[in-house]
Write a structure and sequence with these properties.
The protein is an alpha+beta fold. Helix content is 66%, strand content 11%. It has two domains: 2-166; 175-301, 2-Layer Sandwich (60s Ribosomal Protein L30, Chain: A), CATH 3.30.1330.60. The chain starts with a helix and ends in a 9-residue tail after the last strand.
Length: 310
């Protein structure tokens, strides 16, 4: 009899305290993640990021929203399990009361003891399941919180570096017509595009005097940006033999890289690539478009890389 009363006390305490406390804690964790996602939402809608960085953040933010929805589903499952457990506790208490009141109808002492042991084992299993689900849920929330913080920090640092590069090249851009030297941002990088007319004569990979002056100014700006990755890409239009165009684009990129080196840029910081006619900026159907495609680009990448944990 004492064991039955003791077990009823355990059932009452567990039914009213432990699962409710776990449920409330999980609900608070879920609200905290939702608040974190709200901070990312405000960052996505801000105007401080360049378009490419905003697009990347929007994609990562979408993934975090999906993760949050999965966590909400887990929370709903926990709530359902909690309700089922309460119902189970109620049933067990009623059955145990029946045993105490002699309503079990002829059950022996050994049978009652066995039933109580099974009942106690079931309670322990339920509690272990809830603790396991709570632990997994809390770990997921902590991981997503950390990913959001790291993403925000990386995007902020990258935007700061891009702004530093923009400032360094503002005076260079002001010294040349936009048709000869154009600076724009794409995919979190700064592109300095030099026209063929500024650098080379038709079919030549020898840099003209005006081209050398432009590259010297670019090298001076790069000197204030240590650690920036520099890629020099040569491009042509689609006129003539594709193989010849590819060789010419590579020779021009090498000539620009060599001139940067002559003006103090370390060769180990420069990557050279010839793209030929295979990466046009505009249509080759018009002379205007072909002129835009005949270019050499100096592509600057900040040190900060934005990655999303999966």
């Amino acid at each position: 009899m004492r064991k039955l009363i003791y077990l009823l006390s355990i059932l009452a305490v567990l039914g009213s305290c432990v699962p409710q406390k776990q449920y409330v804690e999980l609900k608070q964790e879920n609200e905290r993640l939702t608040q974190m996602l709200g901070l990312s939402d405000s960052l996505v809608g801000g105007n401080d990021l360049d378009p490419e960085a905003r697009t990347e953040l929007q994609n990562d933010y979408g993934e975090l929203l999906l993760a949050n929805e999965r966590l909400r589903a887990t929370n709903r499952n926990l709530n359902q399990s909690y309700q089922e457990l309460l119902e189970r506790y109620t049933t067990m208490i009623e059955q145990s009361k029946g045993l105490i009141d002699g309503q079990s109808g002829g059950t022996t002492t050994n049978q009652r003891e066995q039933y109580l042991q099974e009942l106690e084992a079931q309670i322990q299993q339920r509690e272990q399941r809830l603790r396991s689900m709570e632990s997994s849920y809390s770990q997921d929330i902590t991981q997503k919180d950390q990913q959001i913080i790291e993403l925000q920090n990386a995007l902020f640092q990258r935007d700061q570096e891009l702004q530093r590069m923009r400032n360094a090249f503002s005076s260079v851009q002001a010294n040349f017509p936009a048709t000869d030297l154009d600076i724009n941002e794409r995919d979190g990088r700064l592109y300095v595009s030099l026209s063929q007319e500024l650098l080379f004569r038709t079919g030549s990979a020898r840099i003209d005097r005006s081209g050398r002056q432009a590259i010297q100014q670019i090298a001076d700006a790069l000197a204030s940006l240590p650690g920036i990755e520099i890629m020099v890409e040569g491009h042509t239009d689609n006129q003539g033999d594709p193989g010849t165009n590819w060789e010419l684009s590579l020779e021009r990129a090498l000539a620009v890289a060599k001139t940067l080196q002559d003006n103090g840029i370390r060769p180990e910081d420069i990557i050279v690539s010839g793209r030929g006619e295979h990466a046009p900026r505009a249509s080759n159907a018009s002379e205007y478009g072909r002129a835009q495609n005949r270019r050499t680009e100096i592509i600057l990448s900040p040190q900060t890389e934005v990655e999303t944990g999966q």
